[in-house]
Structure formats: C-alpha cells, structure tokens
Amino acid sequence: MDFSNLKQLSQHATDSTYEQARAFCELRGTHVMADFSGQETNLDQRWLIFNQPWSNVRKYNGIWLDGNNQVKKYNVHQTDNRHNCAYYSSSYNMLVSESCHQGMHPFICEFRPKNK
C-alpha cells in the first residue's frame, strides 16, 4: 500500500465481509481495497486499533500476499488453516487470519496504484 498520499485513503467503519469490502472499493474502478500490516507509522493507529479493519491480504498456496498484485509478503497470525483473509487485530498487534465469508470488519479503500 502506498501511504505517501494519505488523502487518497477512505476509511469505512461499516462492518462487511471481505468480499463486500473489496467489491465496494472496486465498484467504480478507481480504487482498490488497501493492504497493510498495521505497523506503518503513517497509518491512523487510533482508528486501526479501535476498528480492526480488513487488510487486503490473501493466502495463496500457504503464503500470505497482498491481494492487489500478489507480490508483497505479509506476516499473519493464522488462527485456522482454512482462513484465507486477514484483519488487523489490536489484541495481537498484527494481522490475524479470518474467514473471508463470515468475518465482519471495517475496511480501507485507496486509489488504484498506476502499476497494479
């Protein structure tokens, strides 16, 4: 995720499944769901801690990668081997695995990067 322009971020406090959040962000084709680890210093840490949003990371062949271009690897605390999505957990202070279909969390959209 590119945090160089924080004005591009749009935080949504409505709880959604991963699929609903991703579909909402990509509705107009100008945004994508944001991927982040939660350790970025220029993220709104207070919002992150209180809202515990989805991060656009997915598990591909047992490896956690960003869901936008599948290049950047992420460290995710896996609570169930069947989980393929992750959200930021304030309890763990890191990304934690979650069911893509059953988990409900807020989310962050960002402008679609030009190289993705």
Description:
- Keywords: Disulfide bond.
- With 116 residues, the protein is mainly β.
- It has one domain: Mannose-Binding Protein A, subunit A (Mannose-Binding Protein A, Chain A).
- Helix content is 13%, strand content 34%.
- The chain contains two helices and eight strands; from the N terminus they run E-H-E-H-E-E-E-E-E-E.
- The chain has helices spanning 18-25, 45-51, and strands at residues 10-16, 31-33, 54-60, 63-66, 76-77, 85-89, 94-98, 105-111.
- The strands form two sheets. The protein has a five-stranded mixed β-sheet, with helices on one face.
- Strand 6 (85-89) and strand 7 (94-98) form a beta hairpin.
- The chain is globular and about 35 Å long.
- The model is unreliable at 1-8 (pLDDT under 50).
Query: Radius of gyration from the CA trace?
Result: 13 Å
Q: What name does the CATH topology carry?
A: Mannose-Binding Protein A, Chain A
Given the structure, what is the number of helices?
2
| Structural class estimated from helices and strands | mainly beta
Low-confidence stretches: 1-8
CATH superfamily: Mannose-Binding Protein A, subunit A
CATH architecture: Roll
InterPro entries: C-type_lectin-like (IPR001304), C-type_lectin-like/link_sf (IPR016186), C-type_lectin_CS (IPR018378), CTDL_fold (IPR016187)
Protein name: C-type lectin domain-containing protein
Pfam family, one: Lectin_C
Keywords: Disulfide bond
